[in-house]
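Supplementary notes for students who missed Thursday's class. We covered one full example, reproduced here. Read the sequence, then the structure, then the short commentary at the end.
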Amino acid sequence: MLNSNYNDTIVGKNYLSLIYGTLRILKNKKNKVLIIDESDARMGNHWYKNIGEIEKLIFQKIGKKYKLSSVQKMDNYLKPINTIILLDEKMIELGSSPFANIRELARKLPECFPIEILEELNLLGPDKFDEICFDFFYKIAD
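Structure (token representation):
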């Protein structure tokens, strides 16, 4: 490895560095990219198991566009895990449902959510609200 020449060296292995490395290679097939897994430079402990839905969709679309089968099938390598946020004395746990996440945030941070918003959210219900959110995520990824 030390005797090799690289066009790019990326320190800190996470999904953003993988996207950047993939794009550098796609820009010029002769590019050689080295990604160093430096634990002090990571963007989270479990980046390789769970990434945000929007980021995952964008990465999969890049894989599809450039025919990178391993990137298109990245769901095989991911494991959904909840995100825990500690805010002052409050522990907030976010999962895969946008509806449940907003309910959790509203429960732990009621001062941030007017009652009218929560009433509209309840009228939609969890399935419809999640459907709307995931449709929005797909539009962003496009």
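Commentary. The beta strands are 8-11, 33-36, 83-87, 90-94. The first helix runs from residue 15 to 27. If anything here is unclear, bring it to office hours.
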